């Protein structure tokens, strides 16, 4: 059980995190919550409600695109995008709200607005992030990234990618503990696509059990990412079948949470794995 503000998440079976981007420019679903140039909170609520009905236990709300090559966004702009939607969803839906941010001020305000989880692709390494996250009392997902979104795919290089990601995450766990964020509040994520070649991503998926062995729930986000495009020659709109395959391979290797744009399809795929897994327990 992971305690997320007023709600608790049962992690005995893998669960689904649905992605909701409030950015005009996200790689897979950018701009879909906009009417003209204006972000529409009601469109966001409809999307959120659909995802909950389809089986999402968590919704991950983001206001900064972190896909390869993305430019940074001003924290004030990010807050303006994210906070109204967090408030609206918290008031209307029974779901844990995760906020995908590295901005300390947004962490603080999101917790006030009803968020139940913080998801930081920079693993709280930014100025003031550890302190802000600690003060919210919320669980935190620590993700590995090499470099920053603008340049991370230039020439990713590792001697042993699984070891290096694992050691990085262990250092971030220690930093969290030093700042009063206990292990019970932490989730880990290898950060697929964040400063990794296709081969690095595949090695990380194959080596996922060694991250799971650290004893914290592992979150995996592979949905529609460019490694699929590079391997199979598919553009973003044609990456669902491979994303589903990868999701099942990740839960088979111990992933606790699957972050996806396609909640209904991913919930079906994971449900088949769960059914088979329960047979094995008998
Ligand atoms: C993720 C993740 C995230 N991914 C967590 N948060 C994104 N915890 C945003 C590509 O190669 O995996 N885990 N927040 C989206 N980032 C990317 C990265 C999108 C790479 C696309 C690519 O296409």
Instruction: Output the helix-strand order.
Output: EEEEEHEHEHEHEHEHHEHHEH
Low-confidence runs: none
Strand order of the largest sheet: 10-9-8-7-6-3-12-11
What small molecules does this complex bind? pteroic acid
Strand content: 15-25%
Average residue-wise pLDDT: 96
For this structure, the CATH topology is TIM Barrel
What can you see in these coordinates?
With 282 residues, the protein is α/β, with parallel strands linked by helices. The protein has a single domain (2-275), classed as Dihydropteroate synthase-like (TIM Barrel, Alpha-Beta Barrel). The protein is built from 10 helices and 12 strands. It has helices spanning 41-53, 75-92, 104-113, 129-136, 161-178, 198-206, 208-212, 226-232, 240-252, 263-281, and strands at residues 2-4, 7-9, 15-21, 34-35, 38-39, 56-62, 96-100, 117-120, 140-143, 186-189, 219-221, 257-260. The strands form 3 sheets. It has an 8-stranded parallel β-sheet. Strands 1-2 form a two-stranded antiparallel sheet. β4 and β5 form a beta hairpin. α9 packs parallel to α10 (263-281). The chain starts with a strand and ends with a helix. The model has no long low-confidence stretch (mean pLDDT 96). Bound molecules: pteroic acid (PT1).
């Amino acid at each position: 059980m992971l305690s997320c503000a007023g709600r608790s998440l049962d992690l005995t079976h893998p669960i689904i995190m649905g992605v909701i981007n409030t950015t005009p420019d996200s790689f897979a679903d950018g701009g879909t919550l906009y009417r003209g140039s204006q972000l529409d909170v009601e469109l966001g609520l409809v999307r959120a409600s659909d995802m909950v009905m389809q089986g999402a236990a968590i919704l991950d709300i983001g206001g900064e695109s972190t896909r390869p090559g993305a430019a940074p966004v001003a924290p004030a702009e990010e807050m303006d995008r994210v906070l109204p939607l967090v408030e609206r969803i918290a008031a209307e839906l029974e779901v844990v709200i995760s906020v995908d941010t590295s901005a300390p001020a947004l962490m603080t305000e999101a917790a006030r607005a009803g968020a139940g989880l913080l998801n930081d692709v920079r693993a709280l390494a930014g100025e003031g992030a550890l302190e802000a996250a600690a003060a919210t009392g919320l669980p935190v997902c620590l993700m590995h990234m090499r470099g920053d979104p603008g340049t991370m795919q230039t020439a990713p290089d590792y001697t042993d990618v699984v070891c290096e990601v694992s050691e990085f995450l262990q250092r971030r766990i220690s930093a969290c503990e030093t700042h009063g964020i206990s292990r019970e509040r932490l989730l880990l994520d290898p950060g697929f696509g964040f400063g990794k070649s296709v081969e690095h991503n595949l090695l990380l998926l194959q080596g996922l059990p060694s991250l799971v062995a650290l004893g914290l729930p592992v979150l995996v986000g592979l949905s529609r990412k460019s490694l699929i495009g590079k391997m199979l020659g598919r553009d973003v709109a044609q990456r669902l079948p491979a994303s589903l395959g990868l999701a099942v391979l990740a839960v088979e290797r111990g992933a606790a949470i699957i972050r996806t744009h396609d909640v209904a399809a991913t919930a079906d795929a994971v449900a088949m794995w769960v059914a088979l897994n329960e047979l094995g327990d008998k």
